[in-house]
Amino acid sequence: MASELRRSLDRMRYEVLPVGNARVEALDPGSTVTVTASPAKGIGPTIDCAERLAAMGLHAVPHLAARSIRDHAQLAGVLDRLDAAGVSEVFVIAGDAAKPLGEFVDSLALLRAMERMGRLPARIGIAGYPERHAFIPDDCAVQAMSDKSHYADYVVSQITFDPRTIIDWARDLRNRGLEKPVYVGVPGVVDAHRLLRIALKIGLGESTRFLRKQYGAVSKMLARYTPEELIDELSPQLGDPGSPIAGWHLFTFSEVTKTVQWRDDLAARLSGYADRPA
């Protein structure tokens, strides 16, 4: 199991923000780096950042937020820029904007538009929600996942701190016939207070309700947070044919250097275990 986990560390996905200065120099060439979408600043900074990352030799994956794209003409322009930059993978989401900028109200609408245009990227990811969404009823979320899975190559889960919830949700996807691999969304090595603000802002399910009730205790817990405990709990799923869990998606919030250092330290420890005599 340690060897399987060790290999999964080399395939980690790293998510960064399209604003500010994410220091990605610590990443290995070819590493997958996804770029979030900002409802306040629009799709432009996301595409700008993806172009820069691709030019640096990284595998850039921009988030295409449906609600931040005005119309088919703007969508075509975005796809033209990605083609020119050699970016062949996208992560399609609805986006956090309260109202759509134009024609696309959700991620499915954007996926269908790209299909009609004959412009579906070579590889597409979609989001999944292990806990109940704060704004989307459960039955709607299940149907949306089913509809979008026709276009998707993989699913990335939203942040959830309970490994049992993630395992049960991933198995439920498989039981409902969704065979796509799942990359578990895990916070990277992030400042504790910032992580708590992010967790509360996301507004998802039981984790958030717990955090709101236990703010002080959780602040102390998160002060010691690293991704290791959650990944350790979930790592047996990597080799389980009954589970779709395929690896990790690190929400770095642009704190890439500390997250990569943590990964390298964990990989070194795992290699040490593997080298010990039986």
Automatic annotation (TrEMBL):
Pathway: One-carbon metabolism; tetrahydrofolate interconversion. Pfam families: MTHFR. The lineage of its organism: Bacteria, Bacillati, Actinomycetota, Actinomycetes, Pseudonocardiales. Its cofactor is FAD. It comes from the Bacteria. This is Methylenetetrahydrofolate reductase. Keywords: FAD, Flavoprotein, Oxidoreductase. It catalyses: (6S)-5-methyl-5,6,7,8-tetrahydrofolate + NAD(+) = (6R)-5,10-methylene-5,6,7,8-tetrahydrofolate + NADH + H(+). One of its GO terms (cellular component) is cytosol. GO terms for molecular function: FAD binding; methylenetetrahydrofolate reductase (NADH) activity. GO terms for biological process: methionine biosynthetic process; tetrahydrofolate interconversion.
